[in-house]
Amino acid sequence: MTLKNLSLILIALTALTGCQSGGRDTIDSSPGGAALGKTELGACALASPLRQLHAGHDRAGDARLQAMMSAQPATAGAALYGSACADSNAFRMGSGVHDMTGPAGDSISAGYEDPTHVLRGIHLRQFARAFALESPCNGERVILAVTETGFLTQGLRQSVLEKIAADPELSAHYAGENIMMSATHTHSGPGGEAHHSAYNLFRLGYDALVHEIYSTALFRAIQQAHRNLEAHPEPGHVRLAVGELLDVNTNRSEPAYANNPQAEREAWLDSAGEEVRVNKRMLQLRFDRADGRSIGLLNWFGVHTTSVGTHEPLISSDNKGLAAISVERMMGTDYLAPDGEDRFVAAFAQSDEGDSSPNLCFRENPYPDISIGCGVDTLESTAASGVKQLARAIELYDAGGVELRGGLRSRLTHVRMDDIEVDDPVVLASLDHPAELDSTIKRTCTAALGFSMAAGAEDNRGPTQEGIACSDIDPAANLAGDIETVLATIAGGATGSGYPALPARTVGTLLGCGLTVGSDVLPALPDVDYGCHAEKPILFPIGTTELISNADLPMQIMTLGQLAIVALPWEVTTTSARRIRATVMAELAEAGIEHAVVAGLSNDFVQYLTTREEYATQQYEGASTHFGPWTLAAVQQSLRPLAISLRDNTDAPDGVPAPQTAPGLPPRLPYLAADALMPGTAYGEVLTDAAEAYTAGDTVQVVFASAHPRNDALDKLNQAYLLAEREQADGQWQVVARERDPELIMRWHASPEAPVAGQLIALRSSQIEALWHLPRNLPSGRYRIRHEGTAVPLLGSDSLGPRTPFSGTSSSFSVSGPMDDCPGYPALF
To answer: At what angle do helices 574-588 and 631-648 cross, to 10 degrees?
Structure first.
């Protein structure tokens, strides 16, 4: 993600007409004040033309959502937290943020099951962000942490909890039950950090370096948040704002959504009477000190972070990351501030994004069209999605919101998900599905993935097709459909509507539907049952081994005043989340909880959670629902006693022990550190230099002879490979941008290039290409671009020989400007 410190803000904004000085002290952060909107960058976000990209996709006025958003008198204090919290609005608080960017070369992205999507450079750096809260009225503490990663795996959570347990300062206050960790689900971050092989398979094994970077950064963000809280004993206030956000997300799995009950769908209509098929609600917390100074915001909105897509081989925190870094830029966040000092932290977390896509034009411009997100390319689409979320967050922040009143409480349990019979009469009474989707005994199954999982989602296709289901076993029709698929693939080609699809319907229904215990395909195994997967033709029988995936899954509910956060390890579809919120609110509303948000991708990862009706269609999401058709009902059944334990202030229901795992096989092939140089060059040498003069709005390109970015990926956290600098009056050079900022993109080029990942290729030469999109409001002056790296010239016996730091600097160049009051795209917005 891109982050800018206070000094960068001072330089970038001083040329703007009537701009603020850029420091936090110049910003009106009084409750309800227009703090963010009054900054020049905030005003630019609100006025950005990118907000109009595909405007009118949605209609306002979702009546059900409007009712959910209406502010109600706070009543959660005494009812939920006891008499001491009856009228309490006080919270102690702290925030933390730490760079967690993974290796920017030869890393395979998480999210896309595609080993050829190798990351070679940085669009936006990744960050871990955390908030620590304490309630003086009931003495409880909680941690809410958000990572800009594809997943929050059990192995990563385990490593961070182990670090916390080993730290006397933190372990006195925090353990698993009161710590919530969530991922934004960017698909453009390095993968391979999981302990479970299912999530490392297409990353070609477990990557210990990625795991170390992620766990170190997340722990440090949590540590910063705690120390910031401890350094500020005075209580402040947490404000909640809720609003509708349009033209940002669309349902990518409409056949599945349409299979939900009509009455349920008709409960969610817009002002034109049309179905609202994805959650349009943005919910945001604002953390204010007692004197009104803000230290951060935490935002939830459900949309996939897949704007960048497979079109770009760059690390990126995607649309949510762009929104987060932009807010921190406005507030002058200092990422190197000493622990204990305030730093403004903006976290844009994930909600119910299971079937929610940011690619609003995927129907008109189907994958792999580069304008799938309505922009001219995927980076413009990323900027548009990010600035729309950013602008709405600014509006909610500046509106102030209502104060949270009451205390804090958290309950967590682990449930064995592949062995649950749904027998809760309340949950059973809530089910409303056709008789053909029913079964006398409703139970979860041994984990397995279906054939349509390999099809990918509609906005990022895989090699098979969706809708391959055991409810449709007609060999002749399936064979005809497969022939039609082959012909469409030939006619459309890899760049058209006939994107290559394997003729899998015949094989899927004949083979996959026979994959049950006791069949001729799979012999009976103890404690294994694939026979209840109903419509799902099984492609990958995951089984019960912890080496592959996890079935002992965490479920957590955390309450902050009148807000309940339901943390689940799934990607939760829109209708599944509506039912989950209803289940939780049925138990907590009487205790004063007014809002519930589903925080998906939290504390572990186990792919998708669909309704029974959606599952029956066997679209990508249903085929990726591990534990069969009754998984959602089992989740609702498990959440009810958890909510009741919160309401009644009793212990969390008994569950299975939290799993303790080790990195699964196989390990990633070793990286052979040996950086070659092209003849006659030196590390850091400028191969392509800048021109002598530019105008604000131009793009500067500089290429350096360099080394593999994996050499110093851990050392580069909160540092930079690329720095754009401006000459000061005293001849010193001041940093104005780094590759964490949206305007400065880093691309890594290796020779020889590797088609997948070059772990075993030694003696490769590297080049780092800097592309600086000069902001249109950049002050005139002289600038240069500097590169810093680390080379390993000789192959060491431990695969890492002597390390040689180096740097290189372009020629200085003049920039005439500014040309506008705002940065403009592609610099920012």
So the answer is: 30
Between the two ends of the chain, the Cα-to-Cα distance in Å is 15
Q: What is the largest CA-CA distance in the chain?
A: 81
The structure tokens listed for 703 are 């290429």
What 3-state class would DSSP assign to 744?
strand
User: Hey, which residues does 552 pair with through a beta bridge?
Assistant: 416
Distance CA 377, CA 312 (A): 10
- Count CA within 13 A, CB hemisphere, residue 603: 28
- Name 522's bridge partners: 517
- Angle between helix axes 378-399 and 318-330 (nearest 10 degrees) is 50
Q: State how far the Cα of 325 lies from the Cα of 346, in Å rounded to an integer.
A: 7
Of 332-346, 515-529, 573-587, 691-705, the range with the lowest mean pLDDT is: 515-529
CATH topology of domain 675-816: Immunoglobulin-like (2.60.40)
The whole-angstrom distance between residue 608's C-alpha and the CA centroid of its chain comes to 15
b/e for 765-781, b at 16 or more Cβ within 10 A? bbbbbbbbbbbbbbbeb
Q: For this structure, is 159 an active site residue? A: no
Helix or strand holding residue 298 (H, E): strand 294-301
How many CB atoms sit inside 10 A of residue 648's CB? 11
CA distance 662 to 159: 10
CB–CB of 673/106 below 8 Å?
Answer: no
Instruction: Give the pLDDT mean for 316-330.
Output: 97
CB of 140 within 8 A of CB of 409?
Answer: yes
Mean pLDDT estimate for the chain: 90
User: Bridge partners of 789?
Assistant: 806
Q: Return binding residues for Zn(2+).
A: 185, 304, 571, 608
Place of tokens 């994107």: 499
Three-point CA angle 599, 603, 607, nearest 5°: 75
CA 559 vs CA 116, 136, 519: distances in Å: 42, 15, 47
The DSSP line for 763-828 is SEEEEEEEEEE--TTPPSEEEEEEEEEEE--S--TTS----EEEEEEPPPEEEE---SSS--TTT-
294, 307, 357, 766: the active-site residue: 357
Q: ∠568-90-280 over CA atoms, to 5°?
A: 40
pLDDT tens digits, one per residue of 448-462: 999 999 999 988 888
**Cα–Cα dist 718/384, whole Å:** 26
Neighbours of 816 (CB within 10 A): 13
- Statement: the pTM of the whole predicted model exceeds 0.85: yes
Instruction: Output the CA–CA distances (angstroms, integers) from residue 327 to 162, 302, 315, 386, 784, in the order listed.
Output: 32, 19, 20, 11, 26
Residue 444 falls in which region: left (phi positive, over 0), alpha (psi -120 to 50) or beta: beta
Contact 786, 725 (CB under 8 A): yes
DSSP for 152-175, written as a single string: --HHHHHHHHHHHHT-HHHHTT--
Can you spell out the DSSP letters for 32-99? Answer: T--HHHHSHHHHHHHT-GGGGTTTTSS-S--HHHHHHHS-----HHHHHH-GGGTT---BEEEEEEEE
CA distance linking residue 320 with residue 557, whole number of Å = 23
Q: Where are the domains of the chain?
A: 6-413+552-648, 448-541, 675-816
Q: Tell me how far apart the alpha carbons of residues 486 and 501 are, in angstroms, rounded to a whole number.
A: 7
Structure tokens that stand for 275 in this block = 């179905």
- In single-letter form, the type of residue at position 259 comes to N
pLDDT in tens, 72-119: 555 667 789 999 998 899 999 999 999 999 999 999 999 898 898 999
Q: Are 515 and 522 in contact (CB under 8 A)?
A: yes
Give Cα separations from 730 to 559, 711, 712, 726, 734 (angstroms).
54, 35, 32, 11, 11
Distance CA 780, CA 355 (A): 46
